[in-house]
Description:
By secondary structure, the chain is α+β, with helices and mostly antiparallel strands. β8 (92-94) and β9 form a beta hairpin.
Amino acid sequence: MSGRVIGIDLGTLNSCVAAVENGRAVILSEDQRTTVPSCVAFKGDKELVGAGAKRYAVTNPENTVIAVKRVLGHPFDSDEVRAAAAVARYPIVSGPQGGVVLRVAGHELTPIDVSARVLAAVRELAEKALGEPATTAVISVPAHFNDLQRKSTKLAAEQAGIDVLRLINEPTAAAFAYGYKKGRDFMLAVYDLGGGTFDVTVMRARGDTFEVLATDGDSYLGGEDFDSAIAEWLKQEFERQHDSQIDGDDTALLRLKEAAEKAKVELAEVDSTRIELPYLAQLPDGGHIDFSTTLTREKATELVQPLIQRTLDLCSRCIDAAAVAPCELDDVLMVGGQSRMAAVQEGVADLFGCEPRRDINPDEVVAQGAALYAYSITADSLRASAEDAADDALGVALKQTDVARKLLDGVDERLDRTLGDESLQTLLDELLEATGHDDMAELTADPDADLPERAKKVREELLQLDYKMSELTEKVDSDSPDGLEAALQQISDQLSAAHSSSDRADGFLDEADQHASARKVELQDVTSLPLGIGTVGDALSILIDQNTPVPVEHRRMFTTNEDNQEEVEINVYQGRSRDASQNQLLGSFTLWGIGRAPRLTPKIEVAFVVDEDGILSVSASDAASGAEQSIRVRDPLGVQATQSQRRSRSKF
Ligand code: ADP
Ligand code: MG
């Protein structure tokens, strides 16, 4: 770990980064902007990321990638990718491993490539703001991200030169930020509705243990869908007003979507808003049609009500799973830009029977939580490094003090005898020469004493030497040998160096103290989706259920169906459908090299391990012999490109 550990909220539309300074999570910003649009654009041979890319998107949608998180970790053949391809202004084609490739401005990019560019920009911003490298991060992901989406996020980070210390679920990060400073027990729900995803989480804090009781959500439900619902109404309004179709007109549809989003945000402040879109449609005769209409807050609410209801249904399911009553909750946190909508807040207030918190910043709290968590898990090692640095600085300070003392003593002693200029210089040279050797510098303080004790000794010693120095300086008079002043200057330099090393050590010690007093919180999260294998009749046999605390390990015995069968194929799925194939296929693995035996006799134990990042790895062994079984993994997106097949334990 080098440099500062940062917390990154990699959002669908906006990303945000924070770091802990003096025990507080601080949002790292540039030009006063606290979020970075998750947007990548190509302008000629220039690549733009963030605010510049977003500005460029308005006029060049075909060269700009927005909301790539909606397709990250999804196979080409999926509803999510079809939905994204329907609105994208550039071709989305099938990638080599069944994944997705975006053809933008002559580039072929995977969603991982695009996310990596956003992460790299965020990292750069952080490094600029901190003035030091920031190559290690805790990155937040929607609680509902499946294994492939999580792995894709990690690969993107890797590509951006970021070492992922941990992935943290977004609502968990928000809850962490809320609870970290609190220091008392609480029960909390987090409602997180961003641009593309919805999560709800119920968390309990007892002492220094934060425990997620349940989580639920939809990784394809967010503000973008609210915009689409309103845009659809605008389209119908247009068609009704003008008796003209605009279905095939991409530019017009995009303008409607933008107008819908703008109106939606405006309606947070006002009861009704006017939408004016001049030149919206072209007529075959070369003429054009302007479009204008009024959207009231009431109408907008009605249009998005089914979406709000979907989030509320997921909330009900989540509090049921957590086995808590809404009245047991101390607070409900609203996170994500879309949670600002009044109708959303009202729905949440009704369901939970309390007013949600409005005093947290829904755009920043996730990054703050990620940073605080990063700090909480690294504080001990930060303390150790600060102590090491203090130790080193003290070592240097001790040596410099020692040298200064020896020089002072030597000069003092010789001054009592009358010496010529030359012999004074010779003396100094001799002393300096001797102090250059390590063994000459006997450390005056006991190296076993603790650091603060040693630091104190050095300070005391320096004080004495300062005193002695001033005494010597006073002795200088016209009779003093010529070289004395220069010699004293040399000693004074040595003393200053010792002082500054001692000050540096004190600084590191203060830092170590601060890290030592950081609150260390144990965070216990849960799985957000069931994990299972496909069995006969396309049934999903669940191995690890939703809301199981992680990390978790589950073992299952497999055998053969036929005599002398040497291979068994196992398909691993993640999702809530009882039909295995309706879920996300995470990977298929084949156990091979099974000893020839009659059917049903081999006993192969397969272990599924979900780590703290919510990522699965699989290992297998022959239960009878204890021998490791071999596994061949086929992963649907090639997100394992960097984790080539390993025998016996494979991540997929
Ligand atoms: P993400 O974290 O997924 O990138 P954000 O949390 O930044 O997303 O939320 C972005 C969404 O919030 C967008 O759909 C945006 O239109 C919506 N949004 C932002 N402000 C408001 C507001 N005042 N009223 C309604 N929606 C808003
Ligand atoms: Mg977000």
